[in-house]
Amino acid sequence: MDSSANAVGKKKLSGTARGYLILVGLVVASWLVFKIITPGNFGSPKNMLSYFQASLIAATGAVGFYFVLVMGMFDFSIGANIMLSAIVGCVFATRFNLGYFGLIVGCIITGAIVGFLNGIFYVKLHIPSMIVTTGLALIYEAVANYIAGGIEQTLPSNLRAFGQMPGDIILAVVAFIAAYIILNYTKIGTYTYAIGSDEFVAKNMGIKVDKYKVLAFIISGAFFGLMAILTISYGSSMVAVTGMASMSRNFVPTMGCFFGVAFKKYGMPLQSIIIGEFVINIIFFGFIALGAPTAIQDVITGLALLIIITLTTKVAKGEIVK
C-alpha cells in the first residue's frame, strides 16, 4: 500500500511539475516572440515587472471567478461589477471621508452584493447564467451611473497605495491566499468541485446545490470588489458607462480563468490563473510595443489565447470529458 501511495504521489508531483513547465514555457515563448520582433521597447526587466503588476489586477478577480466557472456557470456582469464597486468605494472614501476603510469595504461589500444578486436571480429564475447576468449588468451600469451622477469618479493621490508597489502586490497576495484556502481547505471548495464534476450526483449526496451556487457568485463578486480596488487605484478614476459598454472589462479576467480550468487536471488552477494572466499581459503589451491597431491586437490576442487553451486542454484518447 505504501508503494502504491508513493507512486500516486510521484504521479501527482510530475503532473503538477508538467503544468508549471507548460506555463513557464508559454511565458518564455510569448516574451521571446515579441523580444525578437521589437527588441528596443519590449521585455526589459523593468517592463516585465510592469506587465506582472498589471496582470495582478485581473488575476485577483479571476481567482474568485474560478468558483463560478468551474461549476459550469458564467458571468457577463463582471465589468459592471468592477465599475459599480469601484465607484461605490470611491464615493465612500471621498464623499463620506472614510479613506482607505471606505474604499476597501465599499468595493468588497458592493462586489459581494452584486454576486449575491447574480446567484439569487440565477437559481430562482432557472434560466442560463449568461442571460441572467447580461440583464443584471444593464441594471448595475444604470445604478453606477446614478451614483456617479454622470461625473468621473477620481480617487485622490493620497488614497492610491494599492495602485503601486508594494500595496498592489500585498492586496493581490492576500486575495490569492484567501482563494487558495477557501478552495482547498473548506467545505465550499469541496462542494464546488463536486457540483462542477456532476451536479446530479452532488444533489444525491445531499449537497444543497443552489446554496453553493449562490455562495460561488458571492465569493466571485467579493474578489471582483478587490479587483475594483486595484483597478481604480491603478487608473486613478472610474467612469460610469451604459449600454453594456462595461463588458469590455470581462475579457481579461475571463481568459485568465480559462487557464485555471484548463490546468485543473494538473492540480494547480489558481497558480495557472496568475501565470496565465501574466501571459495575456505579455501578449497585450507586445502588440502595443509593435504599434499594432487595437482591432488587430484584439483579433490576434484572441486567436493566440484560443490556441493556447486548445493545446492545454487536449484530452487523451478514450478519456471522458464533461
Features:
12 helices; two-stranded antiparallel sheet; mainly alpha; globular; disordered N terminus; disordered C terminus; 322 residues; ABC transporter involved in vitamin B12 uptake, BtuC; 1% strand; 2 strands
Question: Could you walk me through the main structural features you see in this protein, from its secondary elements to its overall organization?
Answer:
The chain has helices at residues 2-37, 45-69, 78-94, 99-125, 129-148, 167-185, 187-197, 199-204, 209-235, 251-262, 269-290, 294-312; strands at residues 153-154, 237-238. It contains twelve helices and two strands, in the order αααααβααααβααα. The longest helix has 36 residues, at 2-37. It has 322 residues and is mainly alpha-helical. α2 packs across α10 (251-262). The protein has one domain: ABC transporter involved in vitamin B12 uptake, BtuC (Orthogonal Bundle), CATH 1.10.3470. It has a two-stranded antiparallel ribbon with strand order 1-2.
Describe the structure concisely:
By secondary structure, this protein is mainly α. It has helices spanning 2-37, 45-69, 78-94, 99-125, 129-148, 167-185, 187-197, 199-204, 209-235, 251-262, 269-290, 294-312, and strands at 153-154, 237-238.
Helix and strand topology:
Elements: H1 2-37, H2 45-69, H3 78-94, H4 99-125, H5 129-148, E1 153-154, H6 167-185, H7 187-197, H8 199-204, H9 209-235, E2 237-238, H10 251-262, H11 269-290, H12 294-312
Antiparallel strand pairs: 1-2
